[in-house]
Each structure stands twice: as C-alpha cells, then as structure tokens.
Amino acid sequence: MTTVLAAIDAKPSAKPVLATAVTIATLFDATAVALHVRENGTTAAEKAASAAGLELRLLSGRPVDQIIDAAQRPEVAALVLGARARGGPEPAGHTALEVVTRVPKPVVVVPPHARPPAQLTRILVPLNGSSESSRALETTIELAHRRELEILVLHIHTPATVPAFADHEPHATTAWNREFLTRHIATPHERVRLLRHLGVAADDIAAVAHEATADMIVLAWSQRLDQGRARVVSEALGRSSIPVLLLPVSAADRRSKRSRSAPYISAR
C-alpha cells in the first residue's frame, strides 16, 4: 500500500498536518497514515488521528531519526510535517529543517495555522527556467495534471532578464510564454497558466500564492540550507500561509548545476 505519512506531535498544529496529508494522498494515489514519536504521552496524538479518520503508528526514540527512517520506507510516497517555528529567525522548527534536508522524497511542510482545503484545486509552481528544477518538478506536475488541478507556473524576472519586447509586442510576449511552457512543462497545457512577475523570487512567491489563491506551493530544491543557500525555499517556508511541497533535485542534477546559475534551487 502506497502511503503519505503525516508526522504529528501532541500540539494543535497536528490538525492541519493531518488534513494536508489526507488532501495530498489523493494527488499521490496513496493512503494517508499518521505517525507519532512518543515523548510525553500519546493521548493528544491519538485523538487527533482518530478525528481525522487515520491509522496512527506509534514509535519511540529520537523524533528526527524515527521520522526519517519511517519516511525512507519504500511504500512512502511523501511525508507531511508541521513547520512549528513562527516569527523567529528560522523558516521552520529544528525537527522540520533536519527532516527536509535528509529525506530524499517529496516533503510537505505545513504552517501551524494553515487551513488546507478538502481537495486541491490549484497549485503554484515557481520555475526559474533551469533544466534541474524542471526535471525535479516533472512527476508532480504530471500527477497534478491527471487530477485536473490548475497549475500556475510562476516565472519571476529580474530587471536584467525581462524580454525587451515585453511591454510593446503582445504577439512576441505570447510566443515567449508558449515557448517557455513548452520547454519546461511536458504535460498538456490546457490547465497550465503562466504568471510572470518582475521582482525577487525569495520575496514574492508567498505573496503571489496568496493573491492567486493557490492551495499549495511546489518547489524544487537542493536540500541544502547552509551558508545562505536556498533562500527562496527558506523565505517560502517562513512566509507562506499554505503548505509548501519540497521536491529534492537528484544528485546528478545537483552535480550538473554547479557550473550554472539556478536561483530557485540554491538561491543566495
């Protein structure tokens, strides 16, 4: 049985994590299952899982290690966990940050006050135009297409990358948009919409997601947060009011990236 694992603690933030796991499970053709690592009793976690109608698996040990080990099992398609940190210098709590950097699978990070819908209808997929991020996102975009979700592809220009014709030649702009989607999105484009903005990716993604009423942000990344890396991911986790699905870039793509700029994957 393919599963989406919802790692919960005994706090109220477990509720949006469980709700997100149920919603995400449909995307992955999987069954949502709750996971709790015993620390100070299990009653609250048991009640939360029961209220969500999910099986609860109980483990003992260091939470980070137990969550990572459970997520690595072959039947687990994705992991969902709470961000926990709010208003501090870090984009998420210690447990969430350690887990997302070590689990080589899709991981959804859920803000503590998120209100996930019962069903996904619209996802925001930022794309910087690099082949690495496109490949990492390809499978999830295909799954979203099969589920007939609206896919909002966001491309944020810097002043140096705005096409010269952008404000004066509508036909050239339309052709640029079509070529960009064709190059980076392999699925049919009838439910794909390209949003183009001028700004800074790290600052703008969460705001665009809010304006577009997206249900989830989907980001490809290198699984590195050290020394200022992945600023786009850090800011998305810190600012977003909706779940953020993080998709690891493969080791091969990380190696090929070193000689090229890829700000959505390893922004500084």
Walk me through what this model shows:
The chain is of the alpha/beta class. Helix content is 39%, strand content 22%. It contains 10 helices and 10 strands. A 10-stranded mixed beta sheet has the order 3-2-1-4-5-10-9-6-7-8, sandwiched between helices. Helix 6 links the parallel strand 7 and strand 8. The chain starts with a strand and ends with a helix. The C terminus is likely disordered.
Produce the secondary structure layout.
Layout: E1 3-7, H1 14-27, E2 31-38, H2 43-52, E3 56-60, H3 63-71, E4 76-82, H4 94-102, E5 107-110, E6 122-126, H5 131-146, E7 150-157, H6 170-184, E8 192-198, H7 201-211, E9 216-221, H8 231-239, E10 244-248, H9 251-257, H10 263-266
Parallel strand pairs: 1-2, 1-4, 2-3, 4-5, 6-7, 6-9, 7-8, 9-10
Antiparallel strand pairs: 5-10
Helix pairs in contact: 1-2, 3-4, 7-8
